[in-house]
Design goal:
- By secondary structure, this protein is of the alpha+beta class.
- The protein contains eight helices and 20 strands.
- It folds into two domains: 232 residues, P-loop containing nucleotide triphosphate hydrolases (Rossmann fold, 3-Layer(aba) Sandwich); 122 residues, OB fold (Dihydrolipoamide Acetyltransferase, E2P), CATH 2.40.50.
- The strands form four sheets. The protein has a six-stranded mixed β-sheet with strand order 6-7-8-3-9-10, sandwiched between helices. A five-stranded antiparallel β-sheet has the order 13-12-11-14-20, with no helix packed on it. Strands 15-19-16-17-18 form a five-stranded antiparallel β-sheet, with no helix packed on it.
- A hairpin with a 2-residue loop joins β12 and β13.
- The longest helix has 18 residues.
- The chain is elongated.
- The structure holds adenosine-5'-diphosphate and magnesium ion (MG).
C-alpha cells in the first residue's frame, strides 16, 4: 500500500450525550481520492472538521503523515478545506481571492504571482483572473474556491459537498474536472458527499457512513457489487431484498423456491438470512417463447408483471413472484429493441438471475 496520508484511529465524537461519530477507524493513502458517503446527519462533516482541527475527538487519535495532530492547530496542519458555500470576497477580483491567504502569510510578492497563476491555470480560469465573483457562473465560483485552497499546496484537501449548490448537469461536468485536477496535482482528497453516483464515479475508495459509524469501506465496485449490509445495499443503488432460510448445499429457501446462493459461508442451516439482487441483474422472458434475456445457467422462477414504468433508456418492471415476493427488474433498451416494445401488466413471465449476483447481507 502507498504511504499513509491520514490515519483515523478509533475516533469517537460526542456532543453532550449524542454520538455524532462512533468509533471510526480508517486509513487513507497518499494521493488517494477518498469519499465519505452517507445520508444527512451521519457524521461526515464532523469527521472532516476533526481532520481539519476545528473539532477535537472525544476519543481516539488522528495522525497526518504518521504524526498525531491533537496539539496542532488548524492553520498549522497541512490541510485545506473547501465548502459548499464558498464565500468569496466580492470586492476582490478572482486573482485577489486566490492570493488572499498567501498575502496574509506574507509570502513574497513574485512567488504569490507565480503560484496564483499556476492555481488559476489548474482550474482553467486564467482568462478570468481580473473578473469579480459576481461576474462568474456557479461552476466558475466553485473553481475559484478550489484554486484558493490549492494555492496553499496542502498535502490534503478536505471537500465538504463542494458541488452541492450546482445544478445536476454542471455538477456532473465539475465531477469530471475535479477528478482530473486531483490526478494532476496528486494531493490526497477527502471528499464528503451524500450523492452515491458522485462517490461511485470519482473515488478510489468510499467509506459508507450510517449513524456515525462506517458501515463499509472499499473501492466503488466492491461497495456496489458486495454490500455487506442492508443499509449499504439500499443506499448505494437500488436493491431487491429477499429473506429466506439457509438449507444444506449452499441453498436458500424462499417460499416454495430453493435457490443457489454463493458466499453463504458462516451461515448455518436453518438460519434466516437476507439476500439482495440488483434490478439490472434480473432477466425477464416471455413464457413459452425462445429465451431472449435468460441464460442457461441462471436460476429461474415464474412471476407476473405487476407494473411497468417506461424510462426511455429502458423499462422498470415490478414482478410478483409465485412465492409472494416482489422484485424490481431494470430492463435496458438496446439497439435491438425499443424500450416500450413488450410487456403487458398481468402477463405471466419467467424471471431469472445468475446465482453469483445474489448478495448475502449480514
Ligand atoms: N456542534 C454540534 N453540537 C451538537 N450536535 C452537533 C454539532 N455538530 C454536529 N452535530 C450533530 O451531529 C450529527 C452529525 O452531523 P454532521 O457531521 O454535520 O453530519 P453530515 O455532515 O453527515 O450531515 C448531526 O445529528 C448533527 O446535528
Ligand atoms: Mg455535512
Amino acid at each position: 500500500m502507498a504511504e499513509e496520508a491520514i490515519r483515523i484511529e478509533n475516533v469517537t465524537k460526542r456532543f453532550g450525550d449524542f454520538t455524532a461519530v462512533d468509533d471510526v477507524d480508517l486509513s487513507i493513502a497518499q494521493g488517494e481520492f477518498f469519499s465519505l458517503l452517507g445520508p444527512s446527519g451521519c457524521g461526515k462533516t464532523t469527521t472532516l472538521r476533526m481532520l481539519a482541527g476545528f473539532e477535537v475527538p472525544t476519543a481516539g487519535r488522528i495522525l497526518l503523515e504518521g504524526d498525531p495532530v491533537e496539539d496542532v492547530p488548524p492553520h498549522q496542519r497541512n490541510v485545506n478545506m473547501v465548502f459548499q458555500s464558498y464565500a468569496l470576497f466580492e470586492h476582490l477580483d478572482v486573482q485577489g481571492n486566490v492570493a488572499f491567504g498567501l498575502k496574509r502569510k506574507k509570502v513574497a510578492k513574485d512567488e504569490i504571482v507565480t503560484r496564483v497563476a499556476e492555481a488559476l491555470e489548474l482550474v482553467d480560469l486564467s482568462s478570468r483572473a481580473a473578473a469579480r465573483p459576481n461576474e462568474l457562473s456557479g461552476g466558475q465560483r466553485q473553481r475559484v474556491a478550489l484554486a484558493r485552497a490549492l494555492v496553499n499546496r496542502p498535502r490534503v484537501l478536505l471537500l465538504d459537498e463542494p458541488l452541492g449548490a450546482l445544478d445536476l448537469k454542471l455538477r456532473r461536468q465539475m465531477q469530471i474536472e475535479l477528478k482530473a485536477i486531483q490526478r494532476e496535482v496528486g494531493i490526497t482528497f477527502v471528499y464528503v458527499t451524500h450523492d452515491q453516483e458522485e462517490a461511485l464515479s470519482m473515488s478510489d475508495r468510499i467509506a459508507v457512513m450510517s449513524d456515525g459509524r462506517v458501515a463499509q469501506c472499499g473501492p466503488p465496485e466492491e461497495i456496489y457489487e458486495h454490500p455487506r449490509e442492508e443499509f449499504v445495499a439500499g443506499f448505494i443503488g437500488v436493491s431487491n431484498l429477499l429473506e429466506g432460510k439457509v438449507e444444506p448445499g449452499g441453498k436458500v429457501r424462499i417460499g416454495d423456491d430453493c435457490l443457489p446462493v454463493p458466499g453463504l459461508d458462516g451461515a448455518g442451516n436453518g438460519d434466516t438470512i437476507q439476500i439482495a439482487v440488483r434490478p439490472e441483474k434480473v432477466a425477464v422472458d416471455e413464457i413459452g417463447a425462445d429465451a431472449y434475456a435468460i441464460e442457461p445457467d441462471m436460476f429461474t422462477v415464474e412471476g407476473e408483471i405487476e407494473s411497468k414504468v417506461y424510462l426511455g433508456v429502458g423499462n422498470q418492471l415490478t414482478l410478483k413472484l409465485g412465492n409472494g415476493s416482489r422484485l424490481v427488474a431494470l430492463e435496458q433498451a438496446t439497439y435491438r429493441m425499443r424500450a416500450d416494445e413488450q410487456w403487458e401488466v398481468g402477463q405471466k413471465v419467467k424471471v431469472g438471475w445468475h446465482p453469483e449476483h445474489c448478495m448475502v447481507l449480514s
